[in-house]
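Sharing a chain and its predicted structure for anyone who wants a worked example. Both blocks are below, sequence first, tokens second.
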Amino acid sequence: MSPQIISSAIFLVALLLIFTEKVHRTIIALVAALLMIVVGTFAGFYSQEQALEVIDFNTLGLLMGMMLLVALLEPTGFFQYLAILGGKLSQGKPVRLLVMLGAVTSIVSMFLDNVTTIVLIAPVTILICEILGYNTQPFLISEAILSNTGGVATLVGDPPNILIASAAGFSFNDFLVHSLPIIIVTWFVALAVLNFLFRKEFQGLKNKTNHEALMQLEPKSVLKDLKTTRKVLVVIILAFFGFLLESVIHLEPSTIAFTSAAVALLWVRPPDLKRTLNLIEWDILIFFGALFVMVGGLEKAGVLHIFTQALTESAHLHPLVLGVGLIWIVAIISSFVDNIPITIALIPVLQELGTLGFDITPLWWALVFGAGLGGNGTIIGSTANVIVTSLSEKTRNPITPALWNKKGLPVMLATCFTASLLYIAFYYLIGF
């Protein structure tokens, strides 16, 4: 049996078990990753050393560092303060609340990695919903999807954008000219589709007693430790500027996040360090580590290379046709495989096409849109999706893979269709 079949079978079975929800996804991913290593070692296509190399410790470090900062903020009451303030501004109206939270999440995601954004905003959303007695599912799902969408607009908003910009030589301004206008329109389409999909849920969210109670609350009254709040917020702001100046200071996002967390810990000196560490979502970190190992097995077995070969053989097609096709193919694959390894696998293919005299500039932007928007399709399509899903398990209404497929897949299809039309318009009107 070929390595491609073996690795694909392990990955597909793991996905199937995750979607059935009979066993926790972290356990399934961990077992599948170990199986991929063991089988790959005996079959000769994957080794333990290679499995360690494919794990993106930069992503895991970024997650852990930001989780530590959130863990330091949580006991201070700052999230409760934001929750009450946000709830009062929305006046408890679900659609207005969705628009407000979605807009804030998307704007922040344009300047910070969407993973960091979700880690900061999702706990606030859960608290607002608890105060109002709302089901958290519509708001958390929408935030993750709008965060993924908004992150495509800028160079620093999504990890694949950083990889593509480095390979293609794109600047921050290039994204503002070619990606931002398309994503603004696409974002409003995503918002409209989400409001339509959750219309029944929103119609049932009419608890006037909770609304009146919310409007009587004073946000400042819930701040338990203003001194610690200010300290951690200062560190978070410094981390924000560190992310923006990443190319100048030459530090990885994980290093910036961990340094910020270390400074905050030293400055705050929490009385119960074990409690702070217990607030870290360890299951998310383990799940992603296992997922990286599984995808690495697919790559080493040559499964991803099959796709790159097919793209190379399609080089005779018109760049516009190939670009639209690339948007959809990458989007579909990114729904089931993290978009970072897909991007890494395709970059050398596009570069090779460029050496053959092929106009690859439109294809770089197709890769940006396909990788960024495709992650909305399933529960494991992006890191943000997994984070909000894990956080929802602590609420009364946990997000399930079936629910995400029902809501996320239509949004993915609508946004990819919109991006494809605008991609064609941009190609003929201003070019790439």
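Comments welcome. Residues 234 and 264 are 9 Å apart (CA to CA).
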